[in-house]
Amino acid sequence: MANQSQLGFQDASSPIMEELVEFHDHALMVALAICSLVLYLLTLMLAEKLSSNTVDAQEVELIWTILPAIVLILLALPSLQILYMMDEIDDPDLTLKAIGHQWYWAYEYTDFKDLAFDSYMIPTTELPSGHFRLLEVDHRIVIPMESPIRIIVTANDVLHSWAVPSLGVKTDAIPGRLNQTSFITTRPGIFYGQCSEICGANHSYMPIVVESTPLTHFEHWSTLLSS
């Protein structure tokens, strides 16, 4: 859950999000090194008069041609690795289908016979004390922690986007098309997200709440809900 005036990412709750945060820090360090080098060269040019030998030096031209290529490689390799990791779906323990509507989410647990529900935002006037305004829903998604989860995302009317920042998940919901992604929660907890595609007047009122629980609790919850 994000804090007020927070500048960084939310605490990572999945391996993919941990990789994204590490890559973000890596890219910032590269950008800091580039800015420091450019600032040093600007200061040097203002403070000292460069000779014609320095301006026309082929060695300098070679360096400022090769160095940017090396920097791009240092950024591209980890970025491509994370992209492949995000697209990889290997033998999920649970498959969940999310269907975007104006303006609520419908969920189906496809591994169960009769386990499906609609998830609406709780109005502010009905919100219990201590819950988050515009983020709490009447039916949360409950998943087992430390288990690979595949989620299939689609929409029934207009474009939506199923996004939970702390899990590193953001998948577009497109009418007539099935998109899929996967994630693993590394700890129990409640993770909040929202529709991240402008989908109409009540776009702000489509929250997503994922509750990660131990496997025994999930089995008990699924038995109660499907019975």
TrEMBL record:
**Cellular component per GO, a single term:** mitochondrial inner membrane
* Membrane-spanning segments: 27-47, 62-84
Gene Ontology biological process terms from the UniProt entry: ATP synthesis coupled electron transport
Co-factor requirement: Cu cation
Domain (Cytochrome oxidase subunit II transmembrane region profile) spans 1-90
Regarding protein family, the annotation reads: Belongs to the cytochrome c oxidase subunit 2 family.
The molecular function GO annotations come to: copper ion binding; cytochrome-c oxidase activity; oxidoreductase activity
The note describing how and how many cofactors are bound reads: Binds a copper A center.
What is the official name of this protein in its record?
Cytochrome c oxidase subunit 2
Q: Which reaction does it catalyse?
A: 4 Fe(II)-[cytochrome c] + O2 + 8 H(+)(in) = 4 Fe(III)-[cytochrome c] + 2 H2O + 4 H(+)(out)
Looking up InterPro entries in the UniProt record yields: CcO_II, CcO_II-like_C, CcO_II_C, Copper_CuA, Cupredoxin, Cyt_c_oxidase_su2, Cyt_c_oxidase_su2_TM_dom, Cyt_c_oxidase_su2_TM_sf
Say if the entry is tagged with keyword Metal-binding: yes
Q: Residue ranges of the Cytochrome oxidase subunit II copper A binding domain?
A: 91-224
Pfam families tied to this protein: COX2, COX2_TM
Family annotation (NCBIfam families) = CoxB
Q: What does this protein do?
A: Component of the cytochrome c oxidase, the last enzyme in the mitochondrial electron transport chain which drives oxidative phosphorylation. The respiratory chain contains 3 multisubunit complexes succinate dehydrogenase (complex II, CII), ubiquinol-cytochrome c oxidoreductase (cytochrome b-c1 complex, complex III, CIII) and cytochrome c oxidase (complex IV, CIV), that cooperate to transfer electrons derived from NADH and succinate to molecular oxygen, creating an electrochemical gradient over the inner membrane that drives transmembrane transport and the ATP synthase.
| Keywords attached to this entry | Copper, Electron transport, Magnesium, Membrane, Metal-binding, Mitochondrion, Mitochondrion inner membrane, Respiratory chain, Translocase, Transmembrane, Transmembrane helix, Transport
Compartment(s): Mitochondrion inner membrane
Q: Which domain of life is it from?
A: Eukaryota
Bilayer topology:
Multi-pass membrane protein
